[in-house]
């Protein structure tokens, strides 16, 4: 049975599903195609890819072949670091659009804040947005100071900031800043590749709510007002991850999960990566 997935309204009025499928490390072709088809059958309506994932062609083919109408599917892709800058970003976008085989991209993100380039990259993104080639533009891996710098000259406020986010990394200052500016926070690697499943509190609450550890954490994301994009190519997990809209974590238990924060990243820190 497919899940009914709720949506959030972005700062430009565009509606974005609160749960999507991440396809990082999914091989182009059959593997990513099967994952997208399985996700759409399970009720997902958002697919998150990127140029550097090298699977845009497979994602686009699956979206075009889907029984679900194109205007019901929210597709995100991102410009990679070595293509940042004004002209470079415009060219990278056209390459992504061609690979996806889609006229309009729903959300286009600056993948990382490349020092000395991300402002020009953003200027190109604003042009793409004004020309109607993308429905919304945003950023990924931007800390507060990156956003502050971007907003000094930006004509369009980012609609989304996609960050590593999970109970070990709750980013309260960034979360508060994004709320204040109307920027939707989105979690990548929300399940820490399963590392958090062994946490005793997560196991305890998983049993209490009759949900898997993954479902519990994804529900925690939603109740934190964070859009979430768990990655999987396994049909059972894709279907399981979608069923997080039929229960609610109590305020006390939300606080207990919040207390797991260690400011710990499993991936790169935006301040040192680029």
TrEMBL record:
Residues annotated to bind substrate? 111
Q: Which GO terms describe its molecular function?
A: oxidoreductase activity, acting on the CH-OH group of donors, NAD or NADP as acceptor
The active site of this protein is located at 53 (proton donor)
Q: In which organism is this protein found?
A: Alteribacter lacisalsi
Domain spans labelled NADP-dependent oxidoreductase? 22-261
Listed name of the protein: Aldo/keto reductase
InterPro entries in the cross-refs: AKR (IPR020471), AKR5G (IPR044500), Aldo/ket_reductase_CS (IPR018170), NAD(P)_OxRdtase_dom_sf (IPR036812), NADP_OxRdtase_dom (IPR023210)
**Alphabetical list of PROSITE patterns matching this protein:** ALDOKETO_REDUCTASE_2 (PS00062), ALDOKETO_REDUCTASE_3 (PS00063)
Similarity remark: Belongs to the aldo/keto reductase family.
UniProt keyword terms in alphabetical order = NADP, Oxidoreductase
Location of site Lowers pKa of active site Tyr? Answer: 78
């Amino acid at each position: 049975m497919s899940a009914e997935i709720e949506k959030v309204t972005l700062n430009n009025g565009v509606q974005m599903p609160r749960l999507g499928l991440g396809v990082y490390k999914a091989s182009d072709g059959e593997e990513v195609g099967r994952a997208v088809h399985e996700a759409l059958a399970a009720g997902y309506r958002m697919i998150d890819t990127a140029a550097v994932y090298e699977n845009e062609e497979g994602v686009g083919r699956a979206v075009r072949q889907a029984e679900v109408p194109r205007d019901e599917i929210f597709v995100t892709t991102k410009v990679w670091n070595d293509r940042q800058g004004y002209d470079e970003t415009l060219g990278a976008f056209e390459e992504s659009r061609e690979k996806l085989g889609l006229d309009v991209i729903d959300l286009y993100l600056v993948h990382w804040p490349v020092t000395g380039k991300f402002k020009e990259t953003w200027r190109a993104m604003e042009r793409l947005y004004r020309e109607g080639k993308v429905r919304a533009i945003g950023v990924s891996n931007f800390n507060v100071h990156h956003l502050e710098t971007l907003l000094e000259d930006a004509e369009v406020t980012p609609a989304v900031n996609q960050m590593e986010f999970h109970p070990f990394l709750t980013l309260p200052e960034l979360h508060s800043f994004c709320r204040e500016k109307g920027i939707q926070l989105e979690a990548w690697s929300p399940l820490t590749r399963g590392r958090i499943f062994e946490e005793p509190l997560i196991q305890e609450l998983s049993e209490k709510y009759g949900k898997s550890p993954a479902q519990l954490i994804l529900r925690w994301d939603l109740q934190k007002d964070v859009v979430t994009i768990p990655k999987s190519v396994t049909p059972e997990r894709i279907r399981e991850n979608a069923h997080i809209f039929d229960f609610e974590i109590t305020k006390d238990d939300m606080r207990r999960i919040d207390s797991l924060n260690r400011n710990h990243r499993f991936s790169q820190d935006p301040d040192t990566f680029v």
